[in-house]
Design brief:
Helix content is 38%, strand content 16%. The protein has 527 residues and is of the alpha/beta class.
Amino acid sequence: MTEHPQNGNDQHGAGAPGPDETQIQDVIDRILAADAASASSTHGTRPASGRALALAEGGDGHTEADGAQYDLAERQALRRVGGLSTELEDMTEVEYRQLRLERVVLAGVWSEGTAEDAENSLRELAALAETAGSEVLDGVIQRRHTPDPATFLGKGKAEELRDIVAMTGADTVIVDSELAPSQRRALEDVVRVKVIDRTALILDIFAQHAKSREGRAQVELAQLEYLLPRLRGWGESMSRQAGGRAAGGEGIGSRGPGETKIELDRRRIRTRMAKLRREIAAMKPARETKRANRRRNRVPSVAIAGYTNAGKSSLLNRLTHAGVLVENALFATLDPTVRKAVTPDGIGYTLSDTVGFVRSLPTQLVEAFRSTLEEVADADVILHVVDASHPDPEGQIAAVRTVLAEVDARRIPEIVVLNKADAADPVVLARLRQREPRSVVVSARTGEGIPELERAIADAIPRPNVALDLLIPFTAGDVVSRLHSPDADIISETYEAGGTRLRVLVREDLAEDLRRFAVDRPEPAGA
């Protein structure tokens, strides 16, 4: 019987890898798509990895429905560029000088689930790193029951990671979990390069992609909440409290200001966080006013929610031709977009695109973006977009529903949209459709299934349900014009001597306003 070590440091025979180690190496080999580029002779690096497998192949896949994509061109103009020196040899390089691509090594602990789960998790981390503007060089996974409380990885695996960092010339290690401040410091002491965790990586992506004033404030608030317990160091500018005999009044110059530099920094951070919360609260009434107007006019609201890079913005463009930014990257769009749409039978509704979700979404982001996620909680219908071509679509669905439960949106009717049908396995699609009865298979890229989705939305949104027989004087033309809007359903329209005779279906609140023109008492539709 072969024993499986818990810490991943024991050897199985003389130089022979154990079954766990072989399986882990297979995971790493599948995650890092080998590139044809040769290794760097300066640092002795391994061949650079290709595009992370969690990102869709074939580019961004823009269609005519996506419009000109000016925002994408602006974002790509600010991309970090690899291979450029900060020492300018030619003045023409000035506009192209960017931050150097960070060269990163990934590290994770496989403590539960299958090898496929560990593979998908590291794939997603590689995609997040590339989205943040990094170059993924290598990866390490350790098989453990629980992470090491000191360095997250075991001692032996941390030393192996240090050797990989030195060999590849990496300058950053990204850990596929949230690290405690002490774990981060201890691991940095071993590998001798910067160490960041999954939460810090996601916050960095949000900081890069936030455009609106509210979005930037929300991201900064989340970053400060993450940073507050992680302030560190006793640098030269730190003032220590005097102790020992100096505390009794002995020792010239031993009495400092009484507050250490780290305490000053914490106080400044708390002051800044309080200011940001006030700013975000001040922005909230404007959004609530818009929602109140839609509620007062009884305009149905449909919110698009789903895992990041599942195709939410592409679907919004396909349904409304909004022309919002579409990019093959995680968290490409953060700011909510609301557009007007009409069902095939002429009923108007609003379609809202929201921030994407991800597995283990940082708590700081959920709290900071709670005001934005209210668009989902206040919707009449949720379009839950799922990337059907992803290796683990069920995991995506579970992660999204966890966040929806946190913002009290699980009670809202949900239509599961299985997107990217052109790239998905038919067997997976059949399995998902059996698991999710209220689902529609679509492809935002090709337009497949869009008519069926529009019919599903039309059946799900609140519809006019009060039948009225009206005689509206010719002097009240504004009322007739209002009834011709997508918010009412006109059954018949004739002209009489007393005015315009209309049989309509309207919503209850509008029926109260039209009661004075009613010929007969209102009755429920279908009665």
